[in-house]
Amino acid sequence: MSAIKLLPDGLINQIAAGEVIERPASVLKELLENAIDAGATDIAVTIAQGGLKQIRVSDNGVGIPSDELSLALMRHATSKISNQADLQKITSLGFRGEGLASIASVSYLQLISQRSGAQHAWQIQAEGGQISQPEPASHPAGTTLEIRDLFFNLPARRKFLKTEATEFAHCEEVFRRMALSHAGIAFTLRHNGKLRSHWQAMAVERRVREVLSEEFAQAATWVSECSAGIGLQGMLALPAYSRATRDMQYFFVNGRFVRDKLIAHALREAYRDVLHLDRHPAFVLHLDVDPESVDVNVHPTKTEVRFRDGRAVHQFIYHGVSKALASPRSAIKAQQT
Ligand code: ADP
Ligand code: MG
Predict the structure, then answer these.
(1) Which of 20, 71, 279, 336 has its CA at a distance of 20 to 30 angstroms from the CA of residue 194?
(2) The domain containing residue 325 runs over which residues?
(3) Is pTM, for the whole model, over 0.80?
(4) Could you say which of 165, 199, 233 is where a domain stops?
(5) Which is the closest atom of ligand 1 to the Cα of 63?
(6) Is the dihedral of CA 298, 303, 308, 314 positive or negative?
(7) What pLDDT sits at residue 331?
(8) How many CB atoms lie within 10 A of CB 12?
(9) Where's the DNA mismatch repair protein S5 domain (predicted)?
């Protein structure tokens, strides 16, 4: 063993990227989160070759000032929190300040941004983490991030990527989650030059119908529960529309897609008497809780959460879902009245 030394920043970023950036879909998730946090109302995604070649996300959000462009690509640099108190009540999707630094360390990245009110846009590039000087550019108000050749400098990692079709399917799933949880934002997705999805800003019920299918919406009952500062809203399919896999299970906590054991258990319990053991329910549910009562800083990918009062959350979900299943209200009618 040689002497202990502090690793260079580039290597530290690549190690962090190992946790956060697994495949093109992880890049897309980070970029979409940033666009949403920037207050965008219109987000356009362009993907080439399943995201292995290119992922571009353009938004009409607040933009980044020219003197902060290179900071945006640096580790632990964020505009979303500034102190420990902020960390206890996260209201944005991002907050760790490592998404862009991680992506930049394992790809070719171009960032162009126009802050509203600024004279013109600015751009910077990064190649495997080496950041260039900002240069003037042209771009409407908002930001475009373009990522090319993910893992070009980590051949071992690149080898683990699957086919173009599989990687695109993962990207599409990430895109769908964001579209489902943010119906008020317009989303466009193109792959290899073809338009795959285009949704205007719309009501939640209609977005669910367009993203998941008319059949799901027809089979769904509406959930809307609120008590003691917790809210549960959304649509869940009645048992007749059960699935062979867990492919239609979307649960969001304060707008963030999560996979959580406690939540999964509450849902399973609620469906237990009405669903055969080898069938899976379909649902899109939004849980809204006080940001101070949930910790999202559990894992770098932020898909796990820890509730301060897990029992109360479990009970609330169980009762809300049981009640909805026991006295179904057509999701479509509920929306029309
Ligand atoms: P985090 O999202 O955790 O703050 P990131 O590395 O993803 O960390 O982004 C760093 C910072 O760059 C963000 O805090 C934000 O200020 C800025 N940023 C990134 N993407 C955008 C965007 N699309 N629009 C405006 N600002 C952005
Ligand atoms: Mg981010």
Answers:
(1) 20
(2) 204-336
(3) yes
(4) 199
(5) 25
(6) negative
(7) 61
(8) 16
(9) 208-326
Among 19, 69, 78, 98, which residue has the most ligand 1 atoms within 8 Å of its CB, making it the best to mutate?
78
User: What tokens does 74 get?
Assistant: 């640096």
Q: What is the DSSP letter of 50?
A: G
Find the Cα–Cα–Cα–Cα dihedral 315, 231, 283, 325, rounded to 10°: 60
Q: Which ligand is closest to the CA of 126, given by its number?
A: 1
User: Considering the domain boundaries, does residue 4 fall inside one?
Assistant: no
Distances (CA, A) of 170 to 50, 161, 214: 9, 11, 22
How many angstroms is it from 26 CA to the middle of ligand 2? Answer: 11
Calpha distance 306→113 (Å, rounded): 35
CA distance 61 to 79: 14
Last residue of a domain, one of 168, 199, 230: 199
Is 139 found in the same domain as 266? no
Q: What is the rounded (10 degree) CA torsion for 240, 243, 246, 250?
A: -50
ipTM: 0.99
